[in-house]
Amino acid sequence: MFLKTNYFKALIKKAWNGVGLTVGNDGAGIYLLGGYWSIYLDSEWMTKKAKAAIIELTGFIPAAGHAITFWKGEDNQTEEKELIPERYYKPDTTYFKTKYKDTGIRIRDYGRGVAVLQNTNTMETVMLAENIVDMVDNYCREKGENPVGPPLSESGQEGIYWQNETCTLRCMTVIAQEETKEEFLLEKLEEYDFEEKRKRS
């Protein structure tokens, strides 16, 4: 998978400690849900480290056709869930027309860290959780695994996806608060084309 293991472990543990970590098994792989993000791991490509990190928190991986939400607690609470449709955690991004570029800019304020990405068609800028964007790393791939594609979106409403044949990562955008430094910076950054590395004419 193209995800840094230490970031992956911290991400799923934070969900388990908070909103709950949902693990679903569709028979071909497993999906993980943690509120504003999802990760799909193909069973044949899932690394031992990733599987061990999940089981360390949950104790087991649900059987095919089942999904369970796990929470930290005295009795490690669980709740059975319905499997969600595949289009939410593993869509075919081949047909997604909106591509994003990581600008490399990070904003750390209001008790959160965000990364700024730019729509390469419209130059619109959006914010995503910094830890999600920084978790993506082509150097973490297994032998024979294809490079991860660029960040893509179908409409922006359902989130932004990174995908290859082994893994799909989805993250929802972070909304900038009105009349704040974040909003001001996003507007200014739209004057620069990060794909072409020049100011828009």
Would you mind describing this structure in some detail?
The protein is of the alpha+beta class. It is built from five helices and 13 strands. It has helices at residues 5-17, 48-58, 86-89, 130-135, 181-189; strands at 21-25, 29-33, 37-42, 66-70, 78-81, 98-109, 112-119, 125-129, 152-153, 160-163, 167-171, 192-193, 198-199. A hairpin with a 4-residue loop joins strand 12 and strand 13. Helix 1 (5-17) packs parallel to helix 2. The longest helix is centred in the N-terminal third of the chain and has 13 residues, at 5-17.
Beta-strand fraction estimate: 25-35%
Helix content percent band: 10-25%
The radius of gyration is 18 Å
Q: Order the strands across the largest sheet as they lie in space.
A: 5-4-1-2-3-11-10
Q: Tell me the number of helical segments per DSSP (H or I, 4 or more residues long).
A: 5
Low-confidence stretches: none
Number of strand segments: 13
Structural class comes to alpha+beta
Q: How far apart lie the N and C ends?
A: 39 Å
Short summary:
With 201 residues, this protein is α+β, with helices and mostly antiparallel strands. The protein has helices spanning 5-17, 48-58, 86-89, 130-135, 181-189; strands at residues 21-25, 29-33, 37-42, 66-70, 78-81, 98-109, 112-119, 125-129, 152-153, 160-163, 167-171, 192-193, 198-199.
Outline the secondary-structure elements:
Blueprint (H helix, E strand, L loop, with lengths): L4 H13 L3 E5 L3 E5 L3 E6 L5 H11 L7 E5 L7 E4 L4 H4 L8 E12 L2 E8 L5 E5 H6 L16 E2 L6 E4 L3 E5 L9 H9 L2 E2 L4 E2 L2
Antiparallel strand pairs: 1-2, 1-4, 2-3, 3-11, 4-5, 6-7, 6-9, 7-8, 10-11, 12-13
